Amino acid sequence: MEHNHASSFMDEVSSSAPGGEALRTCIQCGTCGGSCPSGPDMQHTPRQIFALIRAGERDVVLKSNTPWYCVSCYYCTVRCPKEIPVTEIMYTLKRMAVRDKAFDDSKAPDFSKVFIRWVEEFGRSFELGLMGVHMIRHNPFGAFKIMDMAVGMVTKGRMAFTPTRIKGLDGLKRILAKAKELEAQA
User: Which of 102, 125, 147 is the last residue before a domain boundary?
Assistant: First the structure.
């Protein structure tokens, strides 16, 4: 019975994240956590989260702060020897935690709120700003650890120096306002 419960949680996570089937190939090497600028603030390293998913520990995983401390730098994903889309899995776990009301909103990390503010203002995330705010508030010396990666992302056009607004921002704002209205009614 426990095995079925464990495999069903693994099935749910791996099938919900783009490329998530690769999660089954995790060799527990710890490269993801060692690459993470937010690692010291996480209750569980990504490696531990993956082991907990494999063990079917749904509540522990969805109540963990780990996905909320992911700053979407993709450093873990790039360095993973099994090419596991760690960042996408973290997004998936956040969606699942929100859906299941498994996290305490008052304790959600600042950068999640900052992320939402960027999306509401510009229609998309601003990764450099998001990482900058997070580093200043939580781990200022961690910025040195990821400086080479950040410079590389900017020079390759993968990350912008300034935020940009999407086309149709007014329409997105109306959608977000309606979503908040519906959420308040739920």
Answer: 102
Verify that 91 and 126 share a domain, yes or no.
no
**What's the average model confidence in pLDDT over 63-72?**
88
Q: Name the residue among 10, 6, 13, 184 with its Cα closest to residue 97.
A: 13
Cβ distance 146 to 132 under 8 Å?
no
Asked if residues 7 and 25 have their Cβ atoms less than 8 Å apart, the reply is: no
In Å, what is the CA distance from 165 to each residue of 78, 116, 128, 160, 169?
Answer: 27, 14, 15, 12, 7
Same domain, 16 and 81: yes
Residues 71 and 115 in one domain: no
Residue 43 sits in which domain range?
2-102
Question: 106-119 pLDDT, tens per residue?
Answer: 555 565 666 667 66
Q: Which two tokens stand for residue 18?
A: 């783009």
CA distance 25 to 5: 19
Same domain for 92 and 143, yes or no, is: no
User: Which region, left, alpha or beta, applies to residue 75 given φ > 0 means left and ψ of -120 to 50 means alpha?
Assistant: alpha
Give me the number of domains the chain comprises. 2
pLDDT digits (tens, 9 = 90+) for 39-54: 888 899 999 999 999 9
Please count the other Cβ atoms lying within 10 Å of the Cβ belonging to residue 39. Answer: 18
Residues 124 and 178 in one domain: yes
pTM attached to this predicted model? 0.61
